[in-house]
Amino acid sequence: VMSDRRILITGATRGIGQSLAQHYLTRGATVIGCGRGKASIEHEHYLHFALDVTDEDAVNDLFCGLRDRFGSVDAIVNNAGMASMNLVALTPARVARRIMDTNFLGTFLFTHGGIRLLRRAPAPRIVNVTTVAVPLGLEGEAVYAASKSAVETFTRITAREVGAYGITC
Questions:
Q1: 100 pLDDT tier (thresholds 50, 70, 90)
Q2: pLDDT tens figures, 79-97
Q3: Which residues lie across from 31 on neighbouring strands?
Q4: What residues act catalytically?
Q5: 104 close to 134: Cβ distance less than 8 angstroms
Q6: Distance linking the first and last C-alpha atoms of the chain
Q7: What pTM does this model have?
Q8: How far apart are CA 49 and CA 36, in angstroms?
Q9: Who's near 63: CB < 8 A, 6+ residues apart?
Q10: What is the spatial distance between Cα 18 and Cα 13, in angstroms, rounded to a whole number?
């Protein structure tokens, strides 16, 4: 039973994020979902924030609001991501930048913004979602895999840094 747990999930409007949100809701957790669109879940213990994970001001405002409302968060699942499967020669720089910003910078902003709230929780966790595209090295996925490889390196080093606070990453 997770009735006293608050789980923050990015990319919660569809796909894996939506499934994770529903999973934690069925176990009694309060779920704070984020996505660029409107909420796709209606539940008494679900709060939704429409924001872009790359918008630093919006992310900071979210964490200020969560601090005021709850005081702490038990887990952050950095799930929001985007992919554009194209060969490098066919990938515009603006698309590569958007993928890096969403996949890596979004993960950084939510991790950075959440550390103080996580430190107040009894068993805090950060979960960063990545992809099999990193080890498989598939053609057409260079930028996507590079962005998720950055997330993997970020996760390993962040785990070392926040472990002293009792946060598992």
A1: very high
A2: 999 998 999 999 999 999 9
A3: 7, 46
A4: 144
A5: no
A6: 22
A7: 0.96
A8: 8
A9: 113, 114, 116, 117
A10: 5
